[in-house]
Amino acid sequence: MTFLEVKDLVKHFPKHGGFLNRVIAKVHAVNGVSFEINRGEIVGVVGESGCGKSTLGRVMVRLLEPTAGQVLFEGEDISQYDHRQMMPFRRRMQIIFQDPNSSLNPRMTVGAMLREAIRFHQIVPHSGQADYVESLLAKVGLHSDDKDKFPHEFSGGQRQRIGIARALAVKPEFIVADEPVSALDVSIQAQVLNLLVDLKDEFSLTMLFVSHDLRVVDHFCDRMLVMYLGHIVEELDCKQSGQAALHPYTKALLGANPIIDPDQRHELTLLEGDVPSPYDPPHGCPFTSRCPLVEPRCREEMPPLVEHTDRHRVACWLVEPSADAS
What we know:
eight-stranded mixed β-sheet, alpha/beta
């Protein structure tokens, strides 16, 4: 059975204004997104800033309330659960935030932060909390005496490790990693990514990995979802992303990746035009204003996200579904 399923998920943010502070517009952050995650998978979400990646992850773990749609956790619809009904799922679903500086309480020591989560969810008895905190710190590469320090006493990479330890403290099954390495130096990024890989195997985690770096997603994830203006425009296997990409936007993203071998240079695909306003998205394909292959039909009708081949879905009128798709 599918571990986690998202069905037609929508998230709009109202904009208030005028004399009576009424709703005068809506930001269409996530627009009818649907996908599945199997147990043990790492699914990456990529796209430009403002495409709805982080909003999608926060709605899935109910840090934000969905406007419409469903989030099914092992077949159970949690999208409309109230605070009391969500409590059993809070422990099973955790998030690692992009900026550890703003997500860690500066007035609490590392040990106090971890013990707070452990006590609230009753993970271990009181007598075993000290040993459990030290074991968590050891798993993320920190020392036992770090539990008595405050967040400002650590480097950026160490603070991100604390954020990972806090997410792991309640023994979750599903983690949303919201650009966990984007604020770190490249050398530290590799350390944190390798740590996440090891912890994923050790704790049998399922993850949604949000990033704007396709190289990181290619290396770290099993599948990737490509988002544009709140829509998923393509879903494909990371191992074959370079050869299998079919959507013009995905090809442009992959073509913009820096290359390691200077002898393998290729012509850079430049996207012209501007990203449409999320207050007033286009009626047809959201990529029409920048697509080099746009046709009249693209401006009139939204292409559905259909299966092209197994584990490969594309939302583009110019891509025909494969007869072998199952």
